[in-house]
Amino acid sequence: xxxxxxxxxxxxTGGAGLQADLRTFxxxxxxxxxxxxxxxxxxxxxxxxxxxxxxxxxxxxxDILLKDxxxxxxxxxxxxxxxxxxxxxxxxxxFSLKNLVVDPVAVSSTGVSLxxxxxxxxxxxxxxxxxxxxxxxxxxxxxxxxxxxxNQEDMKKAAVRLRESGPGTVIITGGHLKxxxxxxxxxxxxxxxxxxxxxxxxxxGTGCVFSSAVAACLALGYDVREAxxxxxxxxxxxxxxxxxxxxxxxxxxx
Length: 254
Description:
two-stranded parallel ribbon, nine-stranded mixed beta sheet, 11 strands
C-alpha cells in the first residue's frame, strides 16, 4: 500500500489544510497519514483564530508515528512558527523521509497571515533545501524572492531564485494572475508551463489540494513532471464541480 503523510494546519471546513490533504490522498488511491501542525478556527468566509501547538508535543506526534510507519511521500502545509519548522526539518532528516513536497503556506485566500515572519527564514534556509518539490503560489513566491510577479517572465525569474535555495523542483501556481490559470515548473534545467481555462468564482484550498495531489503521485511512483500534470488536472476537475456549502468560498469537490 502506498502511503503519504500530511503535516499541516487544520481546517474545520475540510476544504483546505490537513483535512483536504487526507481527502486528496484517498481520492488518488493513497493511504493518508495526518499530523496537525497548528489549529485554526475558520469557515468558508475566512480564518478567525490560530492556535499553535507547543513544539515538544508536535515533535512527539512525529516521533510516535514515524517509529511505526514510513510514508512514501510527505507534504507540509501550514508551519506557523520557526520552532515548528525546525522540528519538522529535524524529524524529516532523522527518519530519512523521502519525496518531500513543501507548500509554503503564508496567507489565507482572504488575506490572513498564516506564518510568523521568523518562520519564513527558517523555511527558506532549512526546509526548502531538503524538499523534492516546493509549490508556492505567486504571492508566496514573491514573498520569498522579492520578485514582483505580474506575468510568466516574472514567474520564471522567481522560480530560478527559489531553485537556488535548494529544492529539486519549483512549481509556482499562478491562479491569482490575470489570464489563464497558469502554473510554472522549473527543475533547474527546463521550464514546463501548465495552463487550464480560468474558472470564475472564489475557491478554497486549491493550493493545498494541488500540493497534496503532487505528493500522492510521488508516493505512487510518478516522476515530478508527471505528478505536476496529474495534480493540475485533478484540481481543475475538482474546481469545475466545486460546491457552495457555506456563505463564502466554494469547496473543491472530489
